[in-house]
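Bumping with the actual sequence this time:
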Amino acid sequence: MAIEKNQEIVEAKIVKFKVFRFSSEESDEPSFKIYEIPVKKGMTVLDGLIHIKENLDSTLNFRYSCRMGVCGSCGMFINGLPALGCHTQISHLNSDIVEVKPLPNYYVIRDIVPDFNSLFQKHKSVKPFIIREHIEELGNPTSEYFQTEEEKELISQFTYCIKCGVCSSACPTLATDSEFLGPQAISQAYRYSADTRDEGFLERIKILDSSHGCWRCHFASSCSQVCPKGVDPAFASQLIKREILLMRFGLKKKRKGAPITTLTKEVKRLEEIPEPPKRTLR
């Protein structure tokens, strides 16, 4: 098949999409439906699903938004591995059949749409935000909390999490214990507890050091292998275990959160730095 584009003829390869179909509302038995679509260079699995939706079957359901690996909406199980649909090129699969299923370890709402309620509830439970003893300053800040580049680098990779749920879908512990916190929540608990501006480790430890907390992690590292943003949740799990053990043995020093930066009274713009554009919203 050939596709006309800008007066050029681009040869397209026919690929079969084997797509999981299910509706929890209709209580249908899960099944697969096969679609044949023309695929050209650079086309992603998400592009293929959009082609099916727009040209072959408008009843197909899947979740997506940004199409550029940022929003984390299009996590799915592609040819046996969890990945982002927008981040997976069809040609890189080296197969004439693309099997697409919803992410494992989640309830399925419809077709390829998983229910992320459990993921977000666990994320919320570890308090993924800066906690300070001085509540008044936190609520009405007078300046910024000081942090060096070196201190930021210690937690930098864990800040890349986009909450796509791919890591938790690959976790063998979650497959047998649905109450396990999972790699996403544990990595974010470490991300904030290790942040030099934070003072909330003792608040998070209540859920981390529990029967379904970090000790259930078997260090299979599947979560780290599939993360599309290069985050290493398995490493975070090991680091948070170390912090808990140090506390249990009385070796962990209580850390005071980073101080507030001093307000700069006089600022002079360098000549080589241009003026900012005028505000469009008031």
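The tokens above came from a reply further down the thread. The two ends are 53 Å apart (CA to CA).
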